[in-house]
């Protein structure tokens, strides 16, 4: 199997393990969008563990980038404007849809949640359509 | 209960670090790899599929393990969503998420982790994402979309 696919499996397993720790110890789903919007939206009593998770995510990114900077390269050449629009839509949509790839795609599917299975099918399908259309319209 | 809160915070932090490591190792913090998965056609990269194949079964084991347990180890109750109803906000919100994801190649987890890595593109995306989340809170308050579910 190609090396990058093995790394994908390994990274995925680590994501699965991390989510399992969150479930077994804290009893929570590791949905990054939910944790992020909860951090933004909730009263102070509920911010602490969310802030800790987000801080860990950022620190983890920092540490990994020190080890292998290439893991964070972005060759998509998306303009700043596209990134802003993409971010706005992702932010808006993940709150409305109650989740993203981690919350629905990993945690929800792992427990066979009908909502998460449907959500994942929908965002995958639209993701495929959008990226493919962008390729043909914008040439990248 | 106070000591439990500190344990929860510590665990959440550890989970965040491990999660970021997993994202980076898997290749998902490289938006061109995500886009190469989402762009059907020549040069299709199945990596993201393999990330899910790695993650889901591993995580599914933990759901079996917790079955029948009255509470998690660091808390007095479970906080796992129980609703099974497929609603319009779920469908529309998921479609919007797919649209933004396919446009930018970032989703929340890799975006935030990449902020730690110093990526300006990720910072732009994440800043806009937070604005989008706040916009939704305002929208929901005005139109009461999600007040029933969640």
Give a brief rundown of this model.
With 140 residues, chain A is mainly α. Chain A contains six helices and no strands. Chain B contains six helices and no strands.
Largest sheet of chain A: none
Question: What is the helix tally of chain B?
Answer: 6
Low-confidence sequence ranges of chain B: none
Distance between the termini of chain B: 26 Å
Question: If you compute it from the alpha carbons, what radius of gyration of chain B comes out, rounded to the nearest whole angstrom?
Answer: 18 Å
Classify the oligomer: heterodimer
What is the helix content of chain A? Answer: over 70%
Task: Give the mean pLDDT of chain B.
Answer: 94
List key phrases describing it.
heterodimer; A: 140 residues; 6 helices; B: 150 residues; mainly alpha
Word description of this protein:
Chain A is mostly helical. Chain A is built from six helices and no strands. In chain A, α2 crosses α3. Helix content of chain B is 69%, strand content 0%. Chain B is built from six helices and no strands. The chains are: A mainly alpha (140), B mainly alpha (150). At the A-B interface, α1, α2, α3, α4 and α5 of A face α1, α2, α3, α4 and α5 of B.
